[in-house]
Structures are given as structure tokens and as C-alpha cells.
């Protein structure tokens, strides 16, 4: 386990550089939006990479997209009996300003699509809980939030 920074050493630069990185990646994501729409089940999105590198820098080791678990969780921390899903706010209907954006065209299609994603997410969670896994969901809008990410780290460490 790598040493943790003292409490006073929570540099805001960490999260602003996270935000800047996400903004750059967002530009790429937006230009590829139509390709993205076709592949909601994609892996390796910018928010996912951000969560992975956050955890990796703090000494956590994990597997990715494990096909042996229900729903192929994005990140699997076996040692902590925890899986993490990194969800796009729009695609998975997060209760935030990004999640409440309405599609301009084909609104019914997207509403149905998001509802289907949500019920699939719930089903995956139930299966994983039943198999004794802790299930964490990190929303796209949270990946640069130092507080949210630190709380996740504390929960993980409490499971050892
Ligand atoms: Zn959100």
C-alpha cells in the first residue's frame, strides 16, 4: 500500500488537472459521438480511464471487464470483493444536470434506451450482490470530484 498524503495535502490542482484532462478527452468523445451512440456497451471510456488511473496511483490493483462476472464490470478489485461500474450520466440516466439532458431527436428511442440501460444496471447489481460482491457506481460527473473518489478509497480500505 503506498503512503497516503497528510490530510492538509489535498491539492486542488489534482482535481483541476483531472477536469482539464477530461475536457480534452470530451472533445474527442464528442467528435466520435455517433460512433459512441452505436456502442453503449463500450469499454475504455475517458471517465473509466480516469477512475482507473486514480486507483492505480493509490496502489490499487484490479482487473478490467471481467467476463466471468455478471455484467462484465468495468473494474474488478478482487482483493476488496468490489466491482466498479463507471457510468455515463446521459446513458444511464443519472439524476444530475448531464443525466437530465433531453436528446433533440428520436427522443422516444433514447428514453427507452436509457430506461433499458437502467434496468440492466439494476439486474447486474442484484446478481453481483447475490454473489457477494460490493458494487460501486461512479458517475461520469463524479470522476474528477476528489471528495467522491476519496470516499471510494476509504470504503475499499475498510473492506480488507
Ligand atoms: Zn451525473
- Ranges where pLDDT stays below 50 over 5 or more residues in a row are 1-13
Instruction: Output the radius of gyration.
Output: 16 Å
Structural class: alpha+beta
In CATH, the architecture is 3-Layer(aba) Sandwich
Strand order of the biggest β-sheet: 1-2-3-4
The fraction of residues assigned to DSSP E strands is: 5-15%
Report the total helices.
Answer: 5
Integer count of domains: 1
Number of strands: 4
Ligand types = zinc ion
Major sheet details: 4 strands, mixed
Written description of the protein model:
With 160 residues, this protein is α+β, with helices and mostly antiparallel strands. It has one domain (13-158): VSR Endonuclease (Endonuclease, Chain A, 3-Layer(aba) Sandwich), CATH 3.40.960. Helix content is 47%, strand content 11%. The chain has five helices and four strands, in the order αααβββαβα. A four-stranded mixed sheet has the order 1-2-3-4, with helices on both faces. It is globular and about 45 Å long. 19% of the residues are buried. Residues 89, 94, 96, 98-99, 139-141 line the site of zinc ion.
Amino acid at each position: 500500500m503506498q503512503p497516503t498524503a497528510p490530510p492538509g495535502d489535498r491539492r486542488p490542482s489534482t482535481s483541476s488537472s483531472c477536469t482539464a484532462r477530461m475536457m480534452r478527452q470530451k472533445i474527442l468523445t464528442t467528435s466520435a459521438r455517433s460512433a459512441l451512440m452505436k456502442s453503449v456497451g463500450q469499454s475504455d471510456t475517458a471517465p473509466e480511464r480516469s477512475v482507473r488511473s486514480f486507483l492505480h496511483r493509490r496502489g490499487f490493483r484490479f482487473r478490467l471487464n471481467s467476463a466471468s462476472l455478471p455484467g462484465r464490470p468495468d473494474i474488478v478489485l478482487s482483493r476488496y470483493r468490489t466491482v466498479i461500474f463507471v457510468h455515463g450520466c446521459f446513458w444511464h440516466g443519472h439524476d444530475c444536470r448531464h443525466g437530465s439532458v433531453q436528446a433533440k431527436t428520436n427522443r422516444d428511442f433514447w428514453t427507452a434506451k436509457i430506461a433499458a440501460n437502467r434496468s440492466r444496471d439494476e439486474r447486474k447489481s442484484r446478481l453481483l450482490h447475490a454473489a457477494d460482491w460490493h458494487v460501486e457506481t461512479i458517475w461520469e460527473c463524479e470522476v474528477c470530484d476528489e471528495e467522491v473518489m476519496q470516499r471510494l478509497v476509504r470504503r475499499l480500505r475498510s473492506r480488507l
